[in-house]
Design brief:
By secondary structure, the chain is α/β, with parallel strands linked by helices. It has a single domain (5-341), classed as TIM Barrel, CATH 3.20.20. Helices cover 51% and strands 11% of the residues. It has 16 helices and nine strands. The chain has helices spanning 5-10, 31-40, 43-48, 50-64, 77-81, 102-106, 114-131, 145-154, 162-170, 172-196, 213-234, 254-258, 271-277, 292-295, 297-310, 330-341; strands at 68-70, 86-89, 93-96, 137-143, 200-205, 240-244, 262-265, 283-286, 316-317. The strands form two sheets. Strands 1-4-5-6-7-8-9 form a seven-stranded parallel beta sheet. Helix 11 (213-234) links the parallel strand 5 and strand 6 (240-244). 49% of the residues are buried. The structure holds coproporphyrinogen III (CP3). Coproporphyrinogen III binds next to strand 3.
């Protein structure tokens, strides 16, 4: 069989039709996901039950034939494996016990202890490698250290990441120690996913956009660079997609600075700008506004075609600028795919 399309794009090949997958493609917009989640009881039980996590990972592949499957798990399982309490409040989101001091950082479990909690995730990866169609690429993932730290410090999602910025300002050393601990644990976590069968790794830095100036270098670029260097030295050739969401002008040069093979773009940057500034360094993915999968209509098709055209001169994986939302219409995903694949 010829090499999988996603892997070819990640090596820098320009393909006549871009391969496609979607962030949060296994999720609440799909009735079959809601049914399996009900069977599991709650979101975390779904993440930690390998048969059910594999089942929901496969649902969007079976329905739409995406070129990649993304492991079903969550970026907040890692803080839990480091010793924090984690729970999800229905309709609100995640809650964690917090780390805000040097003593709190010292009390975390060592990186070497994470596998006790996370081994079901590796089992999900093994099941998926057996069950996925031969042409479908399996993506493993983790949160990037800054984004994971923002949840560990605040104990929840925050609009401006205020508590994390406050700890960084008040005790930069303790904050850096926390970021280093997450970095080390993330390397071990992703290595274990690769050993279990993940073929590509994605790092989600959802809150990268709130880091300014030197902080962006120290806490968005540097930990990502360290993770990618360690993964590529342990697993030569493993491709990595980095998503420094809302990095704006700092998308320029991000692949070169971190060693990422592909940069994922949110929908606040223009595709034409990114084609000139970001795609010149390698593969890009993303950029379609997830709202369009709620609204549908002519705009969904014209915007999809516009993004395909803008990135048609270089390596490109079609994706959204952020996750598909629970109110999206599954039929609109078919319309998007028809506009991409013709
Ligand atoms: C910040 C973040 C989290 N998780 C993730 C991020 C980074 C990407 C982003 O910016 O969205 C990443 C993530 N979360 C999930 C996946 C699975 C793979 C996939 O994309 O399909 C992935 C890759 C499942 C999930 N993670 C979550 C759900 C919804 C849970 C449910 O079924 O009730 C899913 C399918 C819950 C979650 N998990 C998180 C939040 C803030 C929430 C609540 C918000 C929400 O409900 O969308 C943390």
């Amino acid at each position: 069989m010829s090499e999988k399309t996603i892997l070819r794009a990640l090596k820098g090949e320009r393909l006549p039709v871009p391969p496609v997958w979607m962030m949060r493609q296994a999720g609440r917009y799909l009735p079959e996901y809601r049914a399996t989640r009900a069977k599991a009881g709650d979101f975390l039980s779904l993440c930690y039950t390998p048969d059910l996590a594999a089942e929901v990972t496969l649902q969007p592949i079976n329905r739409y034939g995406f070129d990649a499957a993304i492991l079903f798990a969550d970026i907040l399982l890692l803080p839990q494996a480091l010793g924090l309490d984690l729970w999800f409040v229905t309709g609100e989101g995640p809650r964690l016990s917090t780390v805000t001091t040097a003593a709190g950082v010292r009390a975390l479990k060592p990186a070497s202890a994470i596998h006790d909690t996370l081994s079901p995730v590796y089992e999900t990866v093994r099941i998926l490698r057996r069950e996925l169609p031969a042409e479908t690429t399996l993506i493993g993932f983790a949160g990037a250290p800054w984004t994971v730290a923002t949840y560990m410090i605040a104990g929840r999602g925050t609009p401006d990441q205020g508590p994390a910025h406050a700890m960084k300002a008040e005790d930069r050393e303790a904050f850096s120690t926390l970021v280093d601990r997450i970095t080390e644990a993330t390397i071990d976590y992703l290595s274990a996913q690769i050993e279990a069968g993940a073929e590509v790794i994605k790092l989600f830095d959802s809150w990268a956009g709130s880091l300014r100036g030197q902080d962006f270098d120290d806490f968005a670029i540097e930990p990502t660079r360290q993770i990618i260097a360690a993964l590529k030295s342990r697993h030569p050739g493993i491709p990595v997609i980095a998503f420094p969401r809302e990095a704006g002008p700092r998308y320029t040069g991000f692949a070169r600075a971190t060693g990422a093979d592909c940069v994922a773009l949110d929908n606040s940057v223009s595709a034409d700008w990114a084609a000139a500034e970001v795609q010149k360094d390698g593969c890009v993915q993303g950029n379609l506004d997830p709202r369009l999968l709620v609204e549908g209509g002519e705009t969904l098709e014209t915007e999809t075609r516009r993004i395909v055209r803008a990135f048609s001169n270089g390596p490109h994986i079609f994706n959204l600028g952020h996750g598909i939302t629970p109110d999206a219409d599954p039929e609109n995903v078919q319309r998007m795919l028809a506009a991409i694949r013709g």
